[in-house]
Design goal:
Helix content: under 10%
CATH architecture: Sandwich
Distance between the termini: 30 Å
CATH superfamily: Methylamine/Aralkylamine dehydrogenase light chain
Shape: globular
CATH topology: Electron Transport Ethylamine Dehydrogenase
Number of helices: 0
Largest sheet: 4 strands, antiparallel
Structural class: mainly beta
Strand content: 25-35%
Order of helices and strands: EEEEEE
Number of strands: 6
Length: 125
């Protein structure tokens, strides 16, 4: 399973909708529609050891949070709830902020299944 991240924040919205606040820089199938959650990989898949990051504003409290986008790997593409939002996306030569890379490198297989959006902290800038 992917790390669950912070659980102490107030959230509103539907994690199965592309408009969910955490998904501001996501690109892929939403794990919340594929047997996992917004923060965890579905059974039978594993989180990639490398991720891309973004900052998204939570409408429940107006704060910006640092989001780690973790691809879940090891199974074929989920095919449900595709979401492609590119807020803050950078070119591929700046990998930590690019969402178009196969982040499943370093796993048992390179097979991409779905993507999570793990809250890792508050943007204090």
């Amino acid at each position: 399973m992917a790390r669950a991240g912070r659980t102490d924040i107030k959230e509103i919205g539907d994690p199965q909708s592309c408009d969910y606040w955490r998904y501001c820089a996501i690109d892929g199938f939403l794990c919340s529609c594929c047997g996992g959650t917004a923060s965890t990989c579905p059974p039978g898949s594993e989180p990639s050891p490398v991720t891309w990051v973004g900052t998204c504003e939570n409408p429940a409290d107006g704060k910006r949070y640092i989001i780690s986008y973790n691809d879940c790997c090891g199974k074929g593409g989920c095919g449900r709830c595709f979401c492609n939002r590119n807020e803050g996306d950078k070119p591929a030569y700046y990998p930590p902020k690019n969402n178009d890379i196969n982040w499943c490198v370093g796993t048992k297989t390179n097979a991409y299944h779905c993507s999570t959006a793990v809250v890792v902290g508050v943007d204090e800038s």
